[in-house]
């Protein structure tokens, strides 16, 4: 699969993505602006690509499944943990429109700058990139309508739940370093939790993340 069109028809045919607005966002946001030059020809391959520093831009199908599950509406305030390239944030930015705002946190400074420059090239103004440990959220702008975690967490981050509005939705992959279950959590009086299946993400680091992941001695990157 190497083109936008092919990806879209695959999603529609297999009913992987049903929300037309999500498909429209995928059409409008150029993924090629968020990847390194050496991988340009693979911009629409359905797999993750390296963005440097041991991190990846998630595969298009995963980004779109998460986006659809998040049920983002115009005007929403969204928190993302794991900016990476900024691509997921750009997709969300399209869906929330001018009245909404995406706050996205990235723990690696170089990637936060990379994402910022990618977003700037596209004149995206409703995304704020924050260089910080997002495993404890971003209190300054809380509470959020939606929270999306794009790195694998060891357990549901309590601190993030606190920063989610009542009836808000959080999408978060939970598991060990090798694989995770993608959870959709709706913040009702009693949490509603839906399992969206098995995925593999780079690990969430920081205070509420995995404690033994990214150093050079680790066999798992
Ligand atoms: N959403 C990104 C891909 C995310 S890859 C995209 O669209 O390109 C996961 C990212 O999470 C990596 O860049 C990693 O550095 C970052 N990360 C890991 N732990 C983090 C933490 N505690 N706070 C913020 N970012 C974190």
Give the % helix: 25-40%
Helices and strands, in N-to-C order? Answer: HHEEHEHEHEEHEEE
CATH topology: Rossmann fold
- Main β-sheet, spatial strand arrangement: 5-4-3-6-7-8-9
| Gap between N and C termini | 26 Å
- Backbone structural class: alpha/beta
* SS field, number of helical segments: 6
Mean pLDDT: 94
- Report the CATH superfamily: Vaccinia Virus protein VP39
Broad CATH class: Alpha Beta
Biggest sheet, in brief?
7 strands, mixed
Low-pLDDT sequence parts: 214-221
Walk me through the structure.
With 221 residues, this protein is of the alpha/beta class. The protein has a single domain (4-199), classed as Rossmann fold (3-Layer(aba) Sandwich). Helix content is 26%, strand content 25%. It has a seven-stranded mixed β-sheet. β4, α5 and β5 (127-131) form a beta-alpha-beta unit. The longest helix is centred in the middle third of the chain and has 13 residues, at 109-121. Bound molecules: S-adenosyl-L-homocysteine (SAH). Residues 55-58, 81-82, 84-85, 87-88, 105-108, 111, 133-135, 150-151, 202, 204-206, 209 line the site of S-adenosyl-L-homocysteine.
Question: Could you give the topology of this structure?
Answer:
Blueprint: H1 4-13, H2 20-28, E1 49-52, E2 55-57, H3 60-70, E3 77-81, H4 87-96, E4 101-106, H5 109-121, E5 127-131, E6 144-149, H6 158-162, E7 164-175, E8 180-186, E9 192-199
Parallel strand pairs: 3-4, 3-6, 4-5, 6-7
Antiparallel strand pairs: 1-2, 7-8, 8-9
Bound molecules: S-adenosyl-L-homocysteine.
